[in-house]
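Task card 7
Instruction: Convert sequence to structure tokens.
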Amino acid sequence: MKHMKLFTGNSNPKLAADVCAYLGSEVGKAEVGTFSDGEVCVELQENVRGMDCFVLQSTSAPANTHLMELLIMVDALRRSSAKRITAVIPYYGYARQDRKVEPRAPITAKLVADLITAAGTDRVLCIDLHAGQIQGFFNLPVDNLYGTPVLLRAIRDRIGNDVTVISPDAGGVERARAYAKRLDASLAIIDKRRERANVAEVLHIIGDVQDRVCVMVDDMVDTAGTLTEGARALMKAGAREVWAVVTHPILSGPAIKRLEESPIREMIVADTVPLRPQAEDCPKLRVVSFSELLGEAIRRINNEESVSSLFI
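Output:
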């Protein structure tokens, strides 16, 4: 690695350490805490002048605190004469409001993109953005890595034949199709209607799931209402068993209880977001690491090499 430093806030220090282990380096020294009134306080404890700096920080819960840590760390690096600053955001929060779906609604995905840009970021590296068009909200280079290859390796040897990949809604069809193509599986869609945030009603299933192994794929799981209700609908429609594959395990509120009571056999998730303490003992959760994927992307960016092969 050439004149490179990787820093992290408090959102996912383990992932940052794993990425540095892959790169053969150490996490940059920085003190990231708060003043007594809750304001974020950042102090870089090593020289970064002329360095290629990366800040690994998911904007996961508490989202506001972790977002401010990211912005302030980027500002600190810029004012310390870093040559280039890359925001490595494994989970890009505030992405669910990526367009106006009703009058007088904000577009928070664009607002956060503007904040990250204004802080002094030179480029952004993400994994499985909630909506691909968020890349266009930035006026700087954005690499949106796909977690599909890593997650596929985790499930390929654990499922049997007669597989059907399930998209939990119409918006996830493209993602589900990518899984189905690589698994040589059929595709089905759950038609749902969301009455309000975090509440989903399953209407019916488009596709054949009778006596099939169903693999539901999604980019994030928050309260797990969509996945668990979808799993029940699939079992009612004659599915043999139901698996779930999700990149970002937010798992807030009643998510763990719903998962444990659901017919989902196992949910495979990534480490883009650290599991809540209540989730660590859940027998239905299996975590796979994205540290090698992120580490390789960072290595290539630092060496000015192509990262296009990582999108396959």
